[in-house]
């Protein structure tokens, strides 16, 4: 009959409910009994912030910390020190991850003033050495190191790179070649001394090349000590807090490549917001570069440098680095 809410289906449901002792319940309403009732489903979990939101928050925090550091010239400056004890180095620079130029630490090295191109060629002679070659015409010479590996007699290498009137980035002995060159460079190790306030006894890795050699903008996965023996090098450093401006595209490298190249800066304009520290290493200077600090290196003269990672304290980072 028109206007009634009774339906045959409802009558059958009422009869079924009475047969199991549930007469009188309104089947149109959900059951809301006591503790034995079926619990309501839990609310859906709050979705996690999108990955870019997490990254933005991280960058915000690092940026705030860096701006606060910049309030104090003492806190943010790239300091120079002389006569720095091991404990003072640990407390003020190594543990906090802060760069420092250390002067005078290798004043007792015979290598200082002795490692000229002629002296090096006479000591090592024609022993074959490995180096990085064919770099000038390749944009990825640092990423494709194996492709750029070459070998030649050392005295021929010095004849190629040892004249300051022929600067360039074509040929360079780097730390990547260290293992293959250990035997050839053994005669030079009599000219170095341990730096036992900061480092273990093992000798560092040699870098030898002409004025104009260039290592593009990157960060390292270990703490590094750069020890300038011959010639000068210009370094530009950027703190890890400004990684968001560095266009980190492949492994530890920046698409900016060179902070001195106006075209690169124009193509990557965010890098203008980064704080850049400049330092020129003179013979006898050491520079501590902590893990994660961006840097690029350009030789101003024929240069011999050693780098060391064998600090007296744990130097961990590369083992857990995410990505290839």
Description:
The longest helix has 19 residues, at 51-69. A hairpin with a 2-residue loop joins β9 (248-250) and β10 (253-254). The chain is 22% helix and 21% strand. The chain is α+β, with helices and mostly antiparallel strands and 324 residues long. Mean pLDDT is 86; it is low at 1-6 and 23-36. It has one domain (85-313): Jelly Rolls (Sandwich). It is built from eight helices and 14 strands. The strands form four sheets. A six-stranded mixed sheet has the order 1-2-12-7-14-5, with no helix packed on it. The protein has helices spanning 8-19, 51-69, 73-76, 86-94, 117-124, 154-161, 178-181, 262-267, and strands spanning 79-82, 100-103, 128-132, 149-153, 205-209, 214-218, 224-230, 233-238, 248-250, 253-254, 277-281, 286-289, 294-299, 303-308.
Helical residues, percent = 10-25%
Mean pLDDT: 86
With strands numbered from the N-terminus, the spatial order across the biggest sheet is: 1-2-12-7-14-5
Task: State the CATH topology.
Answer: Jelly Rolls
| Shape designation | globular
Main sheet attributes: strand count, strand direction, barrel closure: 6 strands, mixed
- First-to-last CA distance: 77 Å
Portion in strands:
15-25%
Annotation keywords:
four-stranded antiparallel β-sheet; alpha+beta; 324 residues; disordered N terminus; six-stranded mixed β-sheet; Jelly Rolls
């Amino acid at each position: 009959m028109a206007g009634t809410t009774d339906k045959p289906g409802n009558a059958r449901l009422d009869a079924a409910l009475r047969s199991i002792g549930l007469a009188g319940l309104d089947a149109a309403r959900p059951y809301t009994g006591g503790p034995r009732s079926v619990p309501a489903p839990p609310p859906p979990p709050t979705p996690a912030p999108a990955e870019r939101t997490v990254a933005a928050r991280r960058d915000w925090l690092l940026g705030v910390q860096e701006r606060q550091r910049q309030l104090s010239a003492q806190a943010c400056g790239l300091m120079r020190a002389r006569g720095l004890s091991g404990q003072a180095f640990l407390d003020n620079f190594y543990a906090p991850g802060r760069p420092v130029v250390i002067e005078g630490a290798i004043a007792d090295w015979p290598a200082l003033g002795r490692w000229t191109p002629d002296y090096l060629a006479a000591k090592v002679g024609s022993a074959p050495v490995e180096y990085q070659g064919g770099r000038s015409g390749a944009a990825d010479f640092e990423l494709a190191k194996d492709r750029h590996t070459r070998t030649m007699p050392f005295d021929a290498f010095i004849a190629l790179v040892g004249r300051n009137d022929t600067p360039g980035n074509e040929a360079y002995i780097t730390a990547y070649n260290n293992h293959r060159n250990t035997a050839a460079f053994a005669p030079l190790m009599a000219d170095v001394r341990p730096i036992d306030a900061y480092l273990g006894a093992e000798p560092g890795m040699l870098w030898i090349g002409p004025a104009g050699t260039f290592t593009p903008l990157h960060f390292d996965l270990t703490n590094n000590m750069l020890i300038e023996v011959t010639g000068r090098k210009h370094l530009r450093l950027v703190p890890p807090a400004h990684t968001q401006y560095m266009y980190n595209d492949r492994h530890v490298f920046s698409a900016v490549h060179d902070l001195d190249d106006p075209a690169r800066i124009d193509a990557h304009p965010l890098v203008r917001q980064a704080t850049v520290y400049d330092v020129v290493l003179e013979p006898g200077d050491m520079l501590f570069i902590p893990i994660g600090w961006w840097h690029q290196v350009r030789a101003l003269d024929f240069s011999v440098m050693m780098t060391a990672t064998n600090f007296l304290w744990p130097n961990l980072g590369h083992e857990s680095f995410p990505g290839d």
